[in-house]
Every structure is written in structure tokens, then in C-alpha cells.
Amino acid sequence: MKNNVWVCLEQNDGKIAGVSFEMLSEARKLADQLSGKVGAVLMGAGVKELAKEAVAYGADEVYVCDDEQLKNYRTDAYTRVLEDLVKGKEPGILLLPATTNGRDLAGRLASRLEAGLAADCVALRLEDGQLVATRPIFGGNLMADVVFKKDPAMCTIRPNSLNKADPDATRGGEIVDVAVVSEEDKIRTQVKEILAKAAGEISLTDAQIIVSGGRGLGDASGFDLIREFAKELGAAVGASRAAVDAGWIPYEHQVGQTGKTVGPKLYIACGISGALQHLAGMKTSDVIVAINKDEEAPIFGVANYGIVGDLYKVIPIMIEEYKKV
Ligand code: FAD
């Protein structure tokens, strides 16, 4: 295996996403064991200033691809740029975030490079100098160790699953400007409009605390209570598929097998039964609290703390108690 470890950084609205720092911290550990370097790829428009942050978190070289064409994520454009870089520099390991964009990019790139891709990994280690990636399978019921037959070993990394090191602003690193060849006519998508999140809303994948609501809310207005609770805790709002399918909250809030995979420090499930497909997306949370009026609900099987009761009675009491803290 070649010894350089690369990270494809995710930035949104000029801010590097937390999972990027987690990947850089892990890449640093791996590269030190392999006596290699950490490379980071930063794509976007007007993003060059962010490169210093990547250096502080362990990058030796940051390849900055700063171009209007890369302003918004587009599969064709991002794949083209990253493919050229990887083919030119040949890292042994390439980490991407298991976010909506990262998953999309990783799949396309792996196919172009004919490389193996382990998706949604939660741990990485080296054995005899070879990468072993651990990822949940069968809805999170088993953990699989994946090994790679050829370079680069590609992994997408589940946010909040790896430890983030403390940044060191005094670290030195090289910032390399990469010229982006203009091929707009070959890019098959155009971004017409970006629908901004409601002001102050916390992104699910970055959140340390998530309050999720399910069918037990009864109707869409139940999410007003969930949002109030989330605001009090500085939490993001999640939802079960039943709540999303009912049209009570947009799909981007869905947690689970066909929604987002999250791993916050605290996950509070309100009126959610705990179907396997929901658990697949949140089971690795550090602490799970369930509020459900049915003491037999399967969610209590994975919860660290369970409150059997009507969420409309329990949550207002919890909000009042948090206000006192
Ligand atoms: P329910 O199962 O109806 O549970 C509602 C719960 O609320 C019950 O346990 C009830 O006791 C409780 N309750 C009711 N009233 C109150 C109250 N006043 N106070 C407290 N508790 C109350 N689901 C997902 O969530 N995410 C996915 O990504 C996902 N992907 C899927 C993919 C496939 C291929 C399939 C087949 C299904 C998928 N599902 C997914 C659906 C999943 O199987 C469940 O149907 C869904 O998670 C149920 O949502 P729920 O827990 O909100 O609703």
C-alpha cells in the first residue's frame, strides 16, 4: 500500500464540516504509522482561506481547487477534479465523508478509479501495513471488517464516529493551488436554486444532540413541541419515516436506513416505536433516550434511558427543567 493518506474535505457555505476534521485527525494517525503524508483536497469557490484549518488538524498538503464551477456540489465537476488529482498523486488511502454529497462523490469516483470502496465506516486501523475499515452491516446488527485489494483504499466515514484531535494553529503545511480546467459544457447538471435551511437550524449530521419525532406526535403541529425542545437543548431535529411520509416534516430530517445516519452524543426519540429501519440510522448514538407511551415499544430495547409516558406531558416538563439549568 502506498503510504499517503488523503481526505476529501466537505465544506458548506464556506465552513468546513465537522466530519472533515474527524477524518483529518484519523488520517494523521494512519499516515504517522505508515510514515506517509496527509493530503487534503478542498473544493469550492472562494474557499482558499479554509485551507489553514485543514493544516491545523493535521494536513501536510492541502490541494485547493477554487473555482466558480465548484461553487455548488455537482457530481460531474467534483468527480473530474478529484479523479485527476488522485490519478496524479496516487494516495494509498482516500477518505470521504458519508454525507449526501460525499456518498455520491465516493461512489462515482471509486467506479472511475476501479477502486474498492467501504461505505459508512465507523473505525479504521492498520494491520500489517494494510487498512482495515469497520462498517455496520445488516441494519447495524453486525460489524464487518473490510480489507482492500488495491490502492487507493477508499472509505466514506460516518460523521461523529471518529475522534477529532485538538487543532494546532502553529503547524506548518503546504497549500497547493490546483488549476481547474474549465469544461462547463461537459458538466451535465446546473444548480438553479438552493433552498436555504430555516435560520438557526442545526445540521443533523453535525449535531451533538438530536431530538427526533415520530408518528406518536399525532400531527404536523407536534413538531412545534419537538423544535421548542430542540432549541432548548441546542439540538437538531430528526424524524422517523412515518412522520416524513405523513408530510409533517421534510425528508432531509429523516433518520434511518433510507434517511440520514447519525451518531450524536445524545439522541432523544419521541413517539418513535424503534423499527429496525429507524434504528439502523441512530443505533450508534452515545446515549439514547426514548419517550413512548407503550412500555413494550422496541425503542426501549436500545435506549439507555426510557420514559414511559405521553410525550405531550413529558416533554414540557423536561423543557421546564432544562430552563432551570
Ligand atoms: P410507529 O411505528 O407508528 O410508532 C409510533 C410510536 O409512537 C408508537 O410506539 C407509539 O406507542 C408511540 N406513541 C403514540 N402516541 C404517543 C404519545 N402521545 N406519547 C408517546 N409515545 C406515543 N423508518 C425510519 O424511521 N427511517 C427510515 O429510514 C426508514 N426506512 C425504511 C426503509 C424500508 C425499506 C422500509 C420497509 C421501512 C423503512 N422505515 C423507515 C419505516 C419503518 O419500518 C417504520 O414504519 C417507521 O420507522 C415507523 O415510524 P414511527 O416509529 O414514527 O411510527
Q: What is the compact description of this entry?
A:
The chain is an alpha/beta fold and 325 residues long. The protein is 28% helix and 26% strand.
What does this protein structure show overall?
The chain has 325 residues and is of the alpha/beta class. It is built from 8 helices and 17 strands. The strands form 4 sheets. It has a 7-stranded parallel β-sheet, with helices on both faces. It has a 5-stranded parallel β-sheet with strand order 14-13-15-16-17. The N and C termini lie far apart (52 Å). 45% of the residues are buried. Flavin-adenine dinucleotide binds next to helix 6, helix 7, strand 16 and helix 8.
Could you tell me how far the N terminus lies from the C terminus, measured between alpha carbons in angstroms? 52 Å
Number of strands: 17
Which structural class fits the helix and strand makeup? alpha/beta
Instruction: Identify the strand order in the major beta sheet.
Output: 7-11-6-1-4-5-12
Low-confidence runs of at least 5 consecutive residues? none
What's the overall geometry? globular
What small-molecule ligands were found? flavin-adenine dinucleotide
Overall residue-averaged pLDDT value: 94
* DSSP summary: helix tally: 8
Listing every helix as H and every strand as E from the N terminus to the C terminus, the arrangement reads: EEEHEHEHEHEEEEEEEHEHEHEEH
Q: What is the rounded Rg?
A: 21 Å
Largest sheet composition: 7 strands, parallel
* Range of helix content: 25-40%
Oligomer: single chain
The proportion of residues in beta strands is 25-35%
GO molecular function, one term: electron transfer activity
Cofactor: FAD
Family: Belongs to the ETF alpha-subunit/FixB family.
Organism: Flintibacter faecis
